[in-house]
């Protein structure tokens, strides 16, 4: 898929050197319309030979380390994270400079408890502003990560997360406007897992058999450096699982809970498990906002950027010594599971998983149109680019409304998706048809393909203040496909 360029901002950010220009320079360049900033040297770098594809399945997929609290007081846990550069092995035998949380790529996993407050003390040791957003979190406005509420280099601030929400697979990432696409691409992302005792009582696979897997794609030059350019989907051909290119992962012959997040900037993953040339059925148990009402038997599952899907795979159906491949419809083999041993298994997948929150009565309706201005080469929501000084939508906290979201097709074959902060929703219908079982749970991100219309029943969280809604094909959001949402008492 070939995507359009994005004016001066796109021009300014097309570069391959590990250092990143200042956010101020990017914004000034975009405002001035200096498209000529793409020099012949930068063009040559983008066209330089790419790194050869590494031999598949030669390195083990790591599981991101769980970050432990620095201190605990009452019902509050304090975590400490520093954003900094690091050189890590992504392609075997090489080192790549990335942006990290706590020196890890991807960042450390936070496993928090529903009803316990997590305070995350972030220090910015990078050379430009950052702002952290917990994607899917029910978070007060001053800790949600408004895109222009950046933390300056050398500074520290506390983000407070009450975790008053269902158990769910969330993730955290940078959201500094105009730079969020590059910052996430270069590594500023990690898992944020909300757990609760009720879910633990279901006896789903847990502990070492509960595996978070962050998927994304990347482009490397011949020196194993990450190459970043806005809308460079076609050239981001190396797919990474937990920061490694086509790794393997040893498993026992028993059930595993696999938590997937699509952390790519633009790529949609359509995943399946294959063994002996045949596709294996798995049980999807959760989506963005937590457990489904009942498991859904699926042979493939689709994830646009920002979406999460959890599946339970029973590797006991394969003989010890088997190799089971995770494949993507457009990217080929992503990960190999090696069934290396037998395993005792007391876990299960119950027929009923959860009681979904009741749908409150809707008191209003809104329409959001995702579009593209061809003449000015801009991505838009309701005909406008993001302006942090303009409120686009005002809504009362706790309100439930019916939202109609349409991709008007003006951007040729480009798909979009839709992610509002502080708001969870249920999909009522897609192009007039009921949602598939895997989309029937609580969601916070939804795909909206070219010409599609999706109707949502959206409920606003309990906090007031400034939030945003945007396309989570994050290169688009970085170019202004975002709107400001003000939640009022």
Automatic annotation (TrEMBL):
Protein name (database record): Multicopper oxidase CueO
Gene3D superfamilies membership: Cupredoxins - blue copper proteins
Protein's gene: cotA
Entry EC no(s): 1.16.3.4
Swiss-Prot/TrEMBL keywords: Capsid protein, Metal-binding, Oxidoreductase, Virion
PANTHER family per the UniProt record, alphabetical: BILIRUBIN OXIDASE, CUPREDOXIN SUPERFAMILY PROTEIN
Source species of the chain: Asanoa siamensis
Transmembrane segments: none
InterPro entries (alphabetical): Cu-oxidase-like_N, Cu-oxidase_C, Cu-oxidase_fam, Cu_oxidase_CS, Cu_oxidase_Cu_BS, Cupredoxin, TAT_signal
Protein family according to the UniProt entry: Belongs to the multicopper oxidase family.
Signal peptide: none
Catalytic reactions of this protein: 4 Cu(+) + O2 + 4 H(+) = 4 Cu(2+) + 2 H2O
Domain Plastocyanin-like: 84-198, 376-488
């Amino acid at each position: 898929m070939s995507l359009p360029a994005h004016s001066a901002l796109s021009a300014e950010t097309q570069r391959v050197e590990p250092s990143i220009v200042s956010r101020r320079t990017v914004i000034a360049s975009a405002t001035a319309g200096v498209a000529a900033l793409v020099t012949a040297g930068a063009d040559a770098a983008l066209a330089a030979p790419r790194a050869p594809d590494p031999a598949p399945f030669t390195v083990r997929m790591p599981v991101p380390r769980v970050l432990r609290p620095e201190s605990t007081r009452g019902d509050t846990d304090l975590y400490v994270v520093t954003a900094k550069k690091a050189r890590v092995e992504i392609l075997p035998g090489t080192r790549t400079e990335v942006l990290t949380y706590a020196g890890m790529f991807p960042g450390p996993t936070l496993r928090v408890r529903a009803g316990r407050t997590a305070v995350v003390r972030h220090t910015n040791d990078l050379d430009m502003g950052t702002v952290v957003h917990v994607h899917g979190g029910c978070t007060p406005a001053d800790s949600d990560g408004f895109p222009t509420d950046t933390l300056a280099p050398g500074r520290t601030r506390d983000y407070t997360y009450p975790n008053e929400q269902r158990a769910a697979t969330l993730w955290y990432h940078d959201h500094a406007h105009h730079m969020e696409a590059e910052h996430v691409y270069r590594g500023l992302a990690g898992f944020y897992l909300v757990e609760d005792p009720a879910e633990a009582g279901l006896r789903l696979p847990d502990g070492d058999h509960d595996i978070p897997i962050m998927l994304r794609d990347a482009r490397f030059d011949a020196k194993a450096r990450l190459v970043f350019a806005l809308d460079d989907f076609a050239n981001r051909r190396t797919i990474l699982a937990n920061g490694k290119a086509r790794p393997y992962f040893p498993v026992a012959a028993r059930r595993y809970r696999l938590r997937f997040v699509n952390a790519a900037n633009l790529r949609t993953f359509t995943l399946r498990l294959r063994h002996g040339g045949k596709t294996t059925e798995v049980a999807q148990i959760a989506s963005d906002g937590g457990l489904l009402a009942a498991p859904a038997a699926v042979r493939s599952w689709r994830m646009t950027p920002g979406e999460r899907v959890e599946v339970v795979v029973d590797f006991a159906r394969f003989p010890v010594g088997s190799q089971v491949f995770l494949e993507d419809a457009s990217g080929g083999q992503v990960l190999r599971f090696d069934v290396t041993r037998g395993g005792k298994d007391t876990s299960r997948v119950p027929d009923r998983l959860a009681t979904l929150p009741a749908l409150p009565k809707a008191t209003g309706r809104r329409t959001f149109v995702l579009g593209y201005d061809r003449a000015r080469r801009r991505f838009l929501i309701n005909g406008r680019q993001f302006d942090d000084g303009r409120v686009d939508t005002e809504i009362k906290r706790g309100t439930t409304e019916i939202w109609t979201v349409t991709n008007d097709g003006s951007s040729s074959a480009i798909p979009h998706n839709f992610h509002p902060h502080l708001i969870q929703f249920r999909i009522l219908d897609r192009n007039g048809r009921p949602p598939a079982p895997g989309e029937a749970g609580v969601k916070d991100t939804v795909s909206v393909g070219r010409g599609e219309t999706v109707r949502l029943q959206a409920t606003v969280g309990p906090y007031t203040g400034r939030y945003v809604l945007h396309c989570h094909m994050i290169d688009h959001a970085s170019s202004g496909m975002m709107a400001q949402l003000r939640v009022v008492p």
